[in-house]
Specification:
Oligomer: single chain
Largest sheet: 3 strands, antiparallel
Strand order of the largest sheet: 1-2-3
Strand content: 35-45%
Radius of gyration: 11 Å
Structural class: alpha+beta
Number of strands: 3
Helix content: 25-40%
Amino acid sequence: MKKINDNGTLQVEVSPGTFFTMERSAISMEYTAALNKAAEVK
């Protein structure tokens, strides 16, 4: 994952220089939980 945008979308780099922007709700619940846990640790 490259970054979380202010509008709730995620930017994911799928190959060098190629990015997908998607709604955060499109990501699996397990990935979202892991992301949130990592953010709490920081």
